[in-house]
Task: structure prediction
Amino acid sequence: QVQLQGSGPGLVKPSQTLSLTCTVSGTSITSGLYYWTWVRQPAGQGLEWIGRISTTGDTNYRPSLRSRVKISVDTSKNQISLELSSVTAADTAVYYCARETGTWILNYHYYYAMDVWGQGTTVTVSS
Amino acid sequence: DIVMTQSPDSLAVSLGERATISCKSSQSVLYNSNNKNDLAWYQQKPGQPPKLIIYWASTRDSGVPDRFIGSGSGTDFTLTINSLQAEDVAVYFCQQSYRTPYTFGQGTKLHIK
Result:
């Protein structure tokens, strides 16, 4: 059973860099065709897709965050990392890591949804 | 960005009755090469992460009860929950995976009347 466990500081000062890690268990992050994704949710609000990284290292980021965000993979630790620089109070949220999965149809692989989610890491930006 | 708009924002339904949630996208999310709509539905209960219930607009994820039914194509989609159970109380989100950045609807809060 695949499980994702996020971790990282719960409190970050304004202008500093938020760094979170998502540890994957039950499978290798390099096996299969998946995207490993970060999504955030401010308290009482909706879901915001931050970005993703494929098992081959390709990344896609939300344009409004692209200048501040970096998603990377550490295959030796089976972890995905999120870095968000120059944070402000607007970055306060629960941060989720998730696996985007897909399937093969006629020799082409299609991704379709995020089927496994971590429990979420609450991050507050405050001095 | 593709804008996803859900209605209503909040919905009260009696136990055993039907709940219907609408989701509209600002552009079509029908992927022509596989004739699939890149539209998923998630259920989120308080203090928990979202849970995938429907993908490709109408395919239930493994283990999801058959009272959850997804329908629609192009820009208009519906999540129907038949015979509402107490454990279905949650916020429901639609999400498009047609184009990055992926976007979600604002959510519909479902509770018992």
Summary: The radius of gyration of chain B is 13 Å. Chain B touches chain A through 27 residues (CB under 8 Å).
